[in-house]
Amino acid sequence: VLLAIGRDACTRNIGLQTIGVKINEKNGKVPVNDEEQTNVPYVYAIGDILDGKLELTPVAIQAGRLLAQRLYGGSSRKCDYINVPTTVFTPLEYGSCGFPEERAIEEYGKQNLEVYHSLFWPLEWTVPGRDNNTCYAKIICNKQDNNRVIGLHVLGPNAGEVTQGFAAAIKCGLTKELLDETIGIHPTCAEVFTTMDITKSSGQDITQKGC
Description:
The protein has 211 residues and is an alpha+beta fold. It folds into 2 domains: 16-73, FAD/NAD(P)-binding domain; 85-202, FAD/NAD-linked reductase, C-terminal dimerisation domain (Enolase-like, domain 1, 2-Layer Sandwich). Helices cover 22% and strands 15% of the residues. The chain has 5 helices and 5 strands, in the order H-H-E-E-H-E-E-E-H-H. The chain has helices spanning 16-19, 57-72, 101-108, 159-171, 176-181; strands at residues 86-88, 94-98, 113-120, 135-142, 148-155. The protein has a 5-stranded antiparallel β-sheet. The protein starts with 15 loop residues before the first helix and ends in a 30-residue tail after the last helix.
């Protein structure tokens, strides 16, 4: 039995109330603005303690570096908390970068989005005869911004490696057209993102007959 409860924010006994720093009373986390600044202008917070942000070590490291550069190096770069590649390392890995579909709808409106998706079958699964159409890939595109990819999701072998590669492309403004123009490496799992042509709204069958 696995109980994944995340991390507790131990903020209630470190004196924040003395200097007036507000916390979320429900979870003990600290609300900040887009520059990691709390309600007290000279107090900043980074990492897992932030309210509504990702609990990921690489995110905390990046945010800390950028904060130091802004405070002492004259930089204006802020941490991107949206286009963060991450993976759940279960036996069948799940990877994502950008918006989940539900959050994208809240942010942009369903009418402004196009969602492409597909089931797929990794080649290495054909020899042992593992179940077909168990793996899944999805991209969420903003129709109002040249079909820019604002969310990428994959469930399959090596999802972490796949997601890490596409994350850089998403940071560079990846669009559906660019994906379609990209030549896929056959046979790879990542190839599925270069051949997607079925939209979720169409209701068409996304099952595949082979790798």
